[in-house]
Amino acid sequence: MTTQLAQEQGTKPVVGLALGSGSARGWAHIGIIQALEEIGVEPQVVAGTSIGALVGGAYVTGSLDAFADWVETLTVKDVFGLLDISFSGGMVKGEKLFGFFREHHANPDIETLDKKLVTVATDMQSGREVWITEGKMLDAARASCALPGLFSPVKRQGRWMLDGGLVNPVPVSAARAMGADVVIAVNLNAQLVGAHMARDSRAQADQAGGSDEERSIWNKMMDYFSSSDGEDPGFFDVVASSINIMQDRITRSRMAGDPPEVTLVPMLEDFALMDFHRAKEAIEEGRALVKRYEADILAWVGSPLADRV
Fold first, then answer.
1. Which of 12, 17, 60, 134 is the most exposed place for a label (fewest CB within 10 A)?
2. Boundaries of domain holding 35
3. Are 50 and 144 in contact (CB under 8 A)?
């Protein structure tokens, strides 16, 4: 049903969210969803890529607020403590991180949920876009979160899955295919400046406690992830910048062909790829963004709060 037809019939359009990839900037998705619900907009369809798949999964399973409370407590050391360094297919296996999620957050089958969820992954062999709409929520999110060079690919139904950002960084098309009349897209790739790990993270890491052995391992990890201080870019600079450039170009192309009704762009240009410890800043920006665009959003979806009066 189109928005115009919905208005003519006196019904509300189905609202869909297209939550894009963007690593640590993706915590802004949390604030956006929370602020949408506060103005009476309740998305029924969620399409997520990479970090958008994880946050979208937390939302449709009813655990977003608890998830938000947890990520706001993360420190630099906490973030690295959840990473199982392997250098096999990627620097991080992801099993430790998603194992933690399974222990502390709901993980139902997607097909049993009241809201629709689709996560986007990339078939490593064929390069095809894969939409996951069934199975355990966290498994679907993990398949979408296999950023090349960072997270190892994951096998699903006999096929190796890579990050969905390689083919569809802001999955507007997936949200429409799942029945959304109005799509609110969150583009995290529009203002990419610092692709490296922020240098203040290194300072925080150096101040962390622990044994001499722990500090030695920690410093080695930080040396690997941190940017080069010389004239030449470091390894992580090159990987992160390359991925960001690619996703930005793909996002521009895909959204030009299938534009959403509303596009939200969080102002997080100083966020580095691994700044997951800055969740509070990102969440606050997401909430502020919805406030700035509240009139535009309600123009498309109607005014749910007014209907309750």
1. 134
2. 15-192+212-297
3. yes
CA distance 236 to 142: 22
**Model pTM?**
0.83
Q: Is residue 228 part of a domain?
A: yes
Tell me, yes or no, whether 204 lies in a domain.
no
Average pLDDT, the chain: 81
158: amino acid identity, one letter:
G
Q: CA-to-CA distance for 220 and 10, rounded, in angstroms?
A: 61
Q: How many domains does the chain have?
A: 1
| Residue 58: C-alpha distances to residues 29, 137, 278 (Å) | 11, 9, 19
> pLDDT at residue 67 above 50?
yes
Helix axes 137-144, 51-60, angle to 10 degrees: 160
Q: Which of 40, 43, 33, 35 is nearest to 13 (CA)?
A: 43
CATH code of the domain containing 218: 3.40.1090.10
d(CA 48, CA 16): 11
The residue type found at 191 is: Q
d(CA 179, CA 182): 9
Contact assessment for residue 197 and residue 227, using Cβ atoms and an 8 Å cutoff: yes
Inside any domain, residue 272: yes
Average pLDDT over residues 224-236: 60
Each residue's pLDDT tens digit, 122-158: 999 999 999 999 999 999 999 998 877 677 788 899 9
DSSP string, 232-267: SPPHHHHHHHHHHHHHHHHHHHHHHHS--SEEE---
Q: Comparing C-alpha atoms, which of 89, 92, 48, 33 is closest to residue 297?
A: 33
pLDDT-based confidence at residue 271 (cuts at 50, 70, 90): confident
As annotated, the active-site residues are 50, 163
Return the amino acid letter for 272. Answer: A
